[in-house]
Design a protein that fits this description.
By secondary structure, this protein is of the alpha/beta class. It folds into two domains: 3-111, CheA-289, Domain 4 (OB fold (Dihydrolipoamide Acetyltransferase, E2P), Beta Barrel), CATH 2.40.50; 123-251, Rossmann fold (3-Layer(aba) Sandwich). It has helices at 104-111, 123-126, 137-149, 160-168, 187-196, 214-223, 234-251, and strands at 8-13, 17-20, 23-28, 31-37, 49-57, 60-65, 81-82, 88-94, 97-102, 129-133, 153-157, 175-179, 205-209, 227-230. The strands form three sheets. It has a six-stranded mixed sheet. A five-stranded parallel sheet has the order 11-10-12-13-14, with helices on both faces. α5 (187-196) links the parallel β12 and β13. α4 packs parallel to α5 (187-196). The longest helix is centred in the last third of the chain and has 18 residues, at 234-251. The protein starts with 7 loop residues before the first strand and ends with a helix.
Length: 252
């Protein structure tokens, strides 16, 4: 899975694992952390050290139980074969081997049913609507849970044409996040079309791209993007959205 989604890699003493109400739990940094198995083959160990991938957000923490943490790889990820298996987005070639890519969004609600419902957020935050445009199912599955956790009501589509169709039908959004490299209508063309429509000319648009060269960023500004964020920079994306939506509210 993308390392950017993982808070910590841990190996905990199995003696610290407790069973309560039919669930495995660990007292972790002052709170109870539920343990969720990555699949039926991964067993919670009774002795020794238990490898975990730890995910944290808004005071909630979950430990994903795995057999072994093999490696950290710096590589471009391309999902070549999709999957219908719950918890798996699909398969990609990683270090020369076919590798299953985990759908993080599947496991978080297994730890906390309301993981994506933040009680402390105001009604205003919960009603902010966001249009997320990316032709990659992998990135949609990876980032939509992050955006929901940040308080946005997310509508995700796989093409610029789909996004424009929604807008033409009257859908209203407080912010738009769009990939740049898409077949058919690319992100630059989508941003220009949104800016050309009086109904959406004021809506903040954030560009997502694996290309962050000065020339690409300048092209994005000319097309009408408010900010430019690298695809795996989830913290940067949330910060850019927060800044852009604050500017939008102040100008409204």
């Amino acid at each position: 899975m993308p390392l950017s989604l993982v808070t910590r890699l841990e190996e905990i003493d199995c003696k610290k694992i407790e069973l309560s109400n039919g669930r495995h739990l660990v007292q972790y940094r002052g709170q109870l952390m539920p343990l969720v198995r990555v699949n039926d083959d991964a067993r919670v160990r009774a002795e020794g050290a238990q490898p975990l991938l730890v995910f944290s957000d808004s005071g909630r923490t979950m430990g994903l139980v795995v057999d072994e943490i093999v490696d950290i790889v710096d590589d471009k990820l391309d999902i070549e074969v999709g999957s219908d298996t719950p918890g798996v987005i699909g398969s990609a070639v990683v270090k020369g081997q076919a590798t299953e890519i985990i759908d993080v969004g599947h496991f978080l609600p297994l730890a906390f049913e309301g993981w994506f419902r933040r009680k402390e957020m105001s009604n205003e935050a919960l009603t902010r609507s966001l249009l997320f445009v990316d032709d990659s199912a992998f990135f949609r599955n990876m980032l939509v849970p992050v955006l929901k956790a940040a308080g946005y009501n997310v509508t995700a589509v796989g093409a610029g044409e789909e996004a424009l169709a929604l807008i033409k039908k009257g859908a209203r959004f407080d912010a738009i996040v769009s990939d740049i490299e898409m077949p058919g209508m690319n992100g630059f063309e989508l941003a220009e079309a949104i800016r050309a429509d009086a109904r959406t000319a004021h809506v903040p648009i954030i560009a997502l791209s694996s290309l962050t060269s000065p020339a690409t960023i300048e092209r994005g500004r000319q097309a009408g993007f408010h900010d430019f964020v690298a695809k795996f920079d989830r913290q940067g994306l949330i910060a850019a959205l927060k800044e852009s939506t604050i500017e939008f509210v102040e100008a409204a």
